[in-house]
Design brief:
Keywords: Plasmid. It comes from Enterococcus faecium (Streptococcus faecium). The chain contains 14 helices and 8 strands. The protein is of the alpha/beta class. The relative contact order is 0.14.
Length: 364
Amino acid sequence: MKWSEKIMSNEQNYETGGTYRLFHGSMNKFDEFSLDHKGLNGTANGFGVYLTPNKEMATMYAEQGSNGNNGFVYEVNVELEKPISMNERTITDEELSKVIDKLQESNDILNDYNDVSYYGEKVVKREVIASLSENENDVDLINDIGNTIGDHEATAKAFYDVGKYTHIIAEEQLRQKDVVIVVLQPDKVKIETIHDLNEERNSLESSEDMTDKFVGHKVSEVPIREVVIKDFEQELETTNYYDKQAWQERIEYLENMEEPVSRLALDSDINEFYDSHKEEIETKLTNLSEKLEIDKEELLGFPVDTSSTEYKKATSIMAYNGAMREIYNEIENDTFEIPPVSEEMENKILKLTNFENTTKFEME
């Protein structure tokens, strides 16, 4: 069996050529991979398509959208041959010379370094090799070339044509066991399945009872302030949970929405919320009415009828927004402490933070 015919599994050795099943997380949907969407920090571990065998890790990168929007997890097969090293120079001077020859034909690389018409091709090529040889590892070398000529795909093709180099293994940069494979040639990554996380989430919610739609976070029996905090735990981007500015920005956004927050979007949600928090809501309404020295009807703009959905909706939104504003003001006064999240969410935040801090890339 040829290496290109096998699918590697379990104890995978990415130093070995083969076809591997990996995952990629993105907020963007596309039909094929290219370097057009590479992350802004994507050259820290080399330019290319960032993949992981860990579906959970890929999912994290597809859950970084604002307003609760999610992206896509791509299940892919990728043909790998030889890796380049992040830690040392393994690409030989002979290979480098051949790469330069190919890039001279396709991209006129030598003139990016010096005037070939004046100094001659041989002289400039020697200068280029000497300059590039100062790079201490393969990744720095290939990045140096790609950045100089401004064509990463041509650079990757030249390295493949010369030495069958296809990828970078970034596991040495991680604090956890996950490995990251940076594929230099996007055409070697074939999409097998696209998981739309929004569709999957909506399908899951529609199959559940509406009263349990906020999975694991039905908190109707706790104070409204705690409900807000639980909602923010779900709605804020994972790595922003402990960022107070992110809390304030989220509050400002929700306060300016014409529609109510997600928890109060449906009549069934409103009735449950009001009935579970009736005493607290009515107390807040009374206090606000007394503070403004106007009666409740004038405050609401319609008659008080605690049995009507209109009344429950208006007062529930008022109480929810009031709790958010209370948190906002405490952040302004530096008296608000963001409460710890659940152990599961804490592990997720820690894992993703460590991942980003050590690899410094985006999975696009």
